[in-house]
Design a protein that fits this description.
Elements lengths: L18 H15 L21 H13 L12 H19 L5 E3 L8 H18 L5 H9 L1 H4 L10 H4 L2 H4 L9 E14 L9 E15 L4 H18 L7 E7 L5 E9 L2 E12 L1 H6 L9 E3 L2 E3 L2 E8 H12 E8 L2 E8 L10 E5 L4 H4 L1 H13 L4 E5 L1 H6 L1 E6 L5 E5 L3 H14 L1
Parallel strand pairs: 1-2, 12-13
Antiparallel strand pairs: 2-3, 3-9, 4-5, 5-6, 6-9, 7-8, 10-11, 13-14, 14-15
Helix pairs in contact: 1-4, 3-11
Length: 434
C-alpha cells in the first residue's frame, strides 16, 4: 500500500498515501486547526431543536432576549445585558468559592499553552489521531503530530484545568504544604463540535466558551468525600438562583479509565444540556506534569506526606446564562383600562439581574396624560428584568416622596427618597442569604 521511491542524489523519500487515509488525517487535523465560531445566532452556541415541549415559548424567549439585548440579534454571542448577566454569574461563582472553609486561591492561566502544558494536551490528540488513522505510517503520524503545537496550542474545555496544575507546586507554600486546597479561575476556552454545514461528521469546528474552573487538591483517602461535598455545593448553587430548581439535575459517569465523575444538566425546552462537570482525575495528570522526582509534589495530609489527587470542577458560564434566561421567562396579565393582555417578564434572581433600578421622570399633570406610555415603559423594564422602577415627579422636590414599583409584584408604594438606599441594600442582601 505504501511505496518508497528509490532515493536519488537530491531526492527526498515520498509516501503514497491512499485518499481515504489522507481524508481521515485531514479530518483529524481540522478538529484542531479549525477556528470558526460555532455560536448560533441568538442561541449562545446551543444546538437548537425544532421539536419538543415548550418550543414555542423558547422562540418567544429568543425574540425577547434579542430585543432587549441579552443576545445579539442576527449574530452569535451575547449582547450588552447578556455580558452583564454573565458578569453577575461570575461574581456569584467567586463569592461561593470564598465562602469555603478551606483555602481557595485565584489562578490565571494563559490562553496559549506553553510547551509543558502542550505535551499533556497533545498526548490526548495523538491518541485521537491514531484512533482515526490506524493505517497511517508511524513516521508520518509522528510528523503530523509535531505540527500541532505550532498551529493550535490552545486550552480547551476538556483541558482547562491543566493550567492550574502548573501552579500546584508554587502554591504549596501558601498553605504550608497542607492539604486540601483549591485553585479557581475563569477564562475563555475553545470547544469542538460537528460542523452542521458539511456532510462529514468527523469534521468539527471550534467556538469559544467562558468557563469556570475549580481544581481541588486532596489526598486519595478523602478525594471521594470531597467529590460528594462539591457535588452538593454546586447543585445547590445552581438551584439557588432558579425559579424552577428541579430543572437542574445530576448524573454519574465513568470515563474510559474508570475515573468517577458527575455531570450537571439543565433541562432546556429542546432537551438536557451539560452546564458543569465534576470529575476525580486521580494523580495521573499531576505526575505527568512533573515527571521524575515526585518529592516536590508531596503535601501533608495529617501526619503523612502524600501525592495529592486532583478533583476538577468545570462549569460553562455561557450555558448558565442561557439556562437562567429560560428559567426566568414568565407570562403575567397586564390590564390597561378595560383591556387585559399578557406581558412577558424576565424574573431573574435579584443577585443576577444586570440592572437593579430604573429611574423615570414624570412632570406634573403630564403623568396622567402619558399613563399609557408609562405602562409601556414598565413593560420594557419588566422584559429587561429590572427589579424596581422609581418615579420622580414635581412633588418629589417639595416633599421628597417618590413612587417605587416592584417588578415581581407590580405593587407601587410611596417612599421617602432618604430611605431608598437602605431599602434596596437590604433587599439585595436578603436575596443573597436565601
Amino acid at each position: 500500500m505504501y511505496s518508497l521511491k528509490k532515493k536519488k542524489k537530491y531526492d527526498r523519500p515520498t509516501f503514497k498515501i491512499p485518499s481515504c487515509t489522507f481524508k481521515k488525517l485531514c479530518s483529524c487535523l481540522l478538529q484542531v486547526y479549525t477556528k470558526r465560531a460555532v455560536l448560533r445566532a441568538g442561541t449562545g452556541g446551543c444546538r437548537a431543536r425544532s421539536t419538543g415541549p415548550g418550543w414555542e415559548g423558547y422562540e418567544a424567549l429568543l425574540e425577547l432576549c434579542q430585543r432587549r439585548h441579552f443576545l445579539r440579534a442576527g449574530q452569535p454571542g451575547l449582547g450588552p445585558l447578556g455580558v452583564a448577566l454573565r458578569g453577575q454569574l461570575t461574581a456569584e461563582w467567586r463569592r461561593a468559592g470564598a465562602a469555603c472553609l478551606q483555602p481557595i486561591f485565584a489562578a490565571e492561566g494563559p490562553l496559549q499553552l506553553n510547551v509543558n502544558l502542550g505535551k499533556l494536551v497533545f498526548y490526548q490528540y495523538s491518541s485521537h489521531a491514531h484512533a482515526h488513522t490506524p493505517f497511517l505510517p508511524p513516521s508520518l503520524l509522528a510528523f503530523s503530530l509535531t505540527l500541532l503545537p505550532t498551529f493550535l496550542p490552545m486550552r480547551e474545555m476538556q483541558t482547562f484545568y491543566i493550567s492550574a496544575l502548573e501552579q500546584y507546586v508554587s502554591c504549596l507554600e501558601l498553605v504550608n504544604k497542607r492539604l486540601p486546597y483549591g485553585l479557581a479561575q475563569v477564562g475563555v476556552c475553545f470547544h469542538r463540535e460537528p460542523d452542521s454545514e458539511t456532510p462529514d461528521e468527523s469534521i468539527t469546528r471550534t467556538g469559544e466558551r467562558t468557563m469556570s474552573s475549580l481544581v481541588w487538591f486532596s489526598s486519595a483517602r478523602t478525594i471521594g468525600q470531597w467529590l460528594d461535598y462539591w457535588l452538593r455545593q454546586r447543585l445547590q448553587w445552581w438551584r439557588k438562583f432558579a425559579i424552577g430548581p428541579s430543572n437542574f439535575t445530576s448524573s454519574d459517569f465513568q470515563d474510559e479509565e474508570g475515573r468517577r465523575g458527575v455531570n450537571l444538566y439543565y433541562s432546556f425546552p429542546w432537551g438536557k444540556e451539560l452546564i458543569e462537570r465534576l470529575q476525580n482525575l486521580g494523580d495521573k495528570e499531576l505526575l505527568q506534569m512533573y515527571p521524575g522526582d515526585c518529592s516536590k509534589l508531596r503535601a501533608r495530609d495529617g501526619r503523612k506526606n502524600v501525592v495529592p489527587h486532583v478533583l476538577s470542577v468545570t462549569g460553562n458560564l455561557d450555558q448558565g446564562v442561557l439556562a437562567y434566561l429560560c428559567d426566568s421567562l414568565q407570562l403575567a396579565e397586564s390590564s390597561l383600562g378595560k383591556k387585559t393582555s399578557q406581558r412577558q417578564v424576565l424574573k431573574l434572581h435579584p443577585c443576577l439581574t444586570p440592572i437593579k433600578v430604573a429611574v423615570d421622570m414624570g412632570r406634573g399633570p403630564i403623568v396622567r396624560v402619558c399613563l399609557f406610555e408609562y405602562i409601556l415603559v414598565l413593560n420594557v423594564y419588566d422584559e429587561m428584568s429590572i427589579l424596581f422602577t422609581i418615579l420622580i415627579t414635581d412633588a418629589t422636590l417639595e416633599n421628597g416622596i417618590v413612587q417605587l414599583r416592584s417588578r415581581d409584584t407590580t405593587m407601587k408604594e410611596m417612599m421617602h427618597i432618604s430611605k431608598l438606599k437602605d431599602f434596596l441594600t437590604n433587599y439585595i442582601t436578603a436575596a443573597k442569604n436565601v
